[in-house]
Write a structure and sequence with these properties.
Helix content is about 55%, strand content about 5%. With about 425 residues, the chain is mainly α. A hairpin with a 2-residue loop joins strand 3 and strand 4. Helix 3 crosses helix 4. It starts with 10 loop residues before the first helix and ends with a helix. About 5% of the residues have low confidence.
Length: about 425
Amino acid sequence: MNEEVLNPFSEEAIEIIKNSPLVKDRKGLSNIKKDQVKKVEEWIKSGGTNTAEEEDILFFSILLATIALRFGSYSKESKLATEIIKMIISGRIGKLISEAHKNDYDENKIISIFSQFFNVVKSNELLKNSEDNKRDLKRASSSMSAENRVKYGIQLSEIFPAISTRKLKLNELLIINGHAHVSQQNLIKISIYKLEALITKFLDKGNKIESKNTIPVLKPLEDLISKWASNPDEYLRNLQKKMYYAVKSRTFIGKVIKGGKALNPDLFPPCIVHILDGVSSGSRNYSITVLLTSFISYARIAPIGSKKNSRISEYIDDLNVIEEILSIIYRAAGRCYPPLLDDQPMEKMNILYHLGFGLDGDVRLELAGNSNWYFPPNCDKIRREAPSLCRQDKHCKRIKNPLSYYSTKIFSKKKNIKNKKL
């Protein structure tokens, strides 16, 4: 296996669990020791870091088995555990890709990262006997950045679990001769969707794993998960900040991304925090498509000194930033009640339109400017259009726009740090 565990359901991982003392004597969870449960708690709190391979796989198993046996597959606890695992694995994949790109770029390194999920083959090798298919492949990747070019082929049967999540559609993929040909970015997405499907399948079978007799040693872990699940969005936000935002830049392709700063959710205005937690049907479209899309994009790309009527391409030269922004927006849309993009999929196109990419439904830097990059609406307009979003705190009284709130807090934080050093 790779040094990092990316798929706790891979054949290698399953073999490690089968040979562990936890399973060998058929006592299962009953054989878990208190110190192991404590380590699982610390492992979760740390975002799955600093753990040896075999122990890491064991921790995934204990967490999932606890959820399956104690809370059921459709509980808020199971949803939280799924998001935790997806976040941990996403972070690991990002780290490995960054390392693969830092020195001598080698596509075989990228392929090896995803070997725990799929049998990935270079598209050029699959299509070497067909010039027409090669032209289709080249056309699909024209004008795209390196990580968005279609380069890798996966057998369709291997991505069926990802399709079962309904977050991936076949018509979004380039399919040739029974293979889906995808980019590096799509490899990441499809891997995470497949992981989500495997977690769901495991949890659905939870009541068949072992009898639900009381296992006292698991009680502290159950209590901890229940506590986090009482406010899952706050917990996930803190974990996300620890894993993704505690760095000054992201380096997926071996260079520091031009423009923008890492987001700091602690400095977001109350209206944005509320939207990230999920809103109800009455304000979903305005909250996600208009306010959150404009705020997150400007806050990430040009929080200070940004001007209206700008193009995103004036500030950045790497689409990974856009992927980061869209993942935040789509995650918030998924937390809406009901989930916004499930019953209004066309809102995805509207989100891209508000980012300035027009109505093509595509994200390429050369398309930036096909529509206006919407600036965050002023507070008085938010109060008129969606009064339920306005949740003023003491800082709101001094500002007129959510982005001003954020940039003012950035300045204040920098000033406080500077004063402490004096």
